[in-house]
Amino acid sequence: MNGLDWTVLIAYFGVMTAIGVWSHKRVDTVSDFFTAGGRMPWWLSGISHHMSGYSAVLFTAYAGIAYTYGVTSYVTFALPIAIGILLGAKLFAPRLNRLRSRLHMASPLEYLKDRYNVPTQQALAWSGILLKIVDVGAKWAAIATLLSVFTGITLTQGILITGGITAVYCTIGGLWADALTELGQFLIQLLAGVAMLVVTLNKISDLGGLSKALDSPKLHGHEHGFAGPYVTVFFIAYLFIKLFEYNGGMWNQAQRYMATGSAKEATRSALLSAGLWFVWPVILFIPMWLSPLLVTAEKPDGSDTYGLMAEQLLPHGLLGLVVVGFFSHTMAMCSSDANAIAAVFTRDVAPVLSRAARAWNTRTGLIAGRVTTVAFLGLSMAVATQVDSPTFKDIITVVIKWVAGLMGPIAIPFILGLMRPFRRSGPTAALGSWGAGLLAFFLVNYHLDFSQRTDVALEYQVAAPMAVSLVLYILIGLVKPENTPERDRIIETLNTEDDGTAATVPTQVGSGGA
């Protein structure tokens, strides 16, 4: 990078900070800070929902998968997310919106204390917060890895730069700042992604054209949708995981639906996000699929290939724009996670821990939310410095194994608890499925009997915790129904359409109810 590239990068940071300062004027209450007061347009919510699902992991870990396996990277990453969000547009998005519009809640988990009980709410909250600290730490490490390729700065320095800038704008402006910066980041990434695609295709034409390139031995097998450890079972498991995760299971996407004005607008937001997920990743992945023809990876996992391509193919100025694109995705995801975690801690955890927190006024609640945001970002940045340690192994291990494996037990009681067919499942089902899912994750990844340890295939490492949690959540609800009139009233509130008719739901699991 030269002076022109640095100018582009510094200008980007300046604009993001300015948006945060401007958004500060729109934040007067806790609801404004965490759910934009329900005033966010559906199209802004949809773009924000889409952008908050990316990070620099796409340009590192998944670039490595694309370098090694080709089309598999899209089939096992973007496609399951797109399908999951599309399915959730009618199933989950409207119900999540009604948490704010009808139950007047500012945190996705606030309803759990009434839907189940306080211990269930706290178990899901604490485990989700700890998982997100590790998850966001992996994202900081990914962007710092890319930054080191271009600038030579250390991993720690890169983490401090990106985390510090993100802390400024998302702490000042809350969800409004997140969404508006994500809109700007989307436009920047649109320019950067198209530029990279055009430059790559132009380079391939110099080598004999796309048809000749596709026949190259270096791309042998790259056309297959499933390859290596990413097989059909993995795809199915990942689809179920992303169905829950990207429809609010890890809370930040739930906030985007809660922020819209109505359930109908939340559905439109989800449909826009799903459409972008079907199309936009293809544009980003094509250069990665062709990368074996243009660069040779220096890292064994190929995670440095996209950075090497950008450095070798792009002119200065445009290179800076692509680097800004890397930051765009990571800062979008991490800032949205920070806001979601702050909402959960401030609204759900702190009132249980402290009697004083239950009496916070508007000003004190806002201060607590901002302090929590900074604290979460600081902890995740500390974890980022350890992401390549033996405990976490590497970025892709954290993202796929840890996050995908642990997300299910946390998300299932939260998401399915919104729906009428699962009203029989109460606190016992929620806590039992959560605990068993976490135990399943430990057993398939870190066996109790290490003397006889055998490797478990990746697809089962990812799928087992969610499968265990899902089955137990349903079975315990059937064997020990715990629905009460109060719990049923909450569910009916979330499942009634705006015109008063019953919301469309799948066939009920069992019978019963008050």
UniProtKB/TrEMBL annotation:
High-level lineage: Bacteria, Bacillati, Actinomycetota, Actinomycetes, Kitasatosporales
Lipid bilayer topology: Multi-pass membrane protein
Pfam families: SSF
Transmembrane parts of this sequence: 6-22, 42-65, 71-93, 129-153, 159-179, 186-205, 225-248, 269-290, 367-387, 399-419, 431-448, 460-479
Location(s), subcellular: Cell membrane
InterPro entries (alphabetical): Na/Glc_symporter_sf, Na/solute_symporter, Sodium:Solute_Symporter_SSF
Compositional bias segments (type: Polar residues): 504-514
Gene Ontology MF terms in the entry: symporter activity
Biological processes per GO annotation: sodium ion transport
Residue ranges the record marks as coiled coil: none
Species in which this protein is naturally found: Streptomyces nodosus
This protein's UniProt keywords: Cell membrane, Ion transport, Membrane, Sodium, Sodium transport, Transmembrane, Transmembrane helix, Transport
Gene3D superfamilies in the record: Sodium/glucose cotransporter (1.20.1730.10)
An annotated GO cellular component: plasma membrane
Entry protein name: Na+:solute symporter
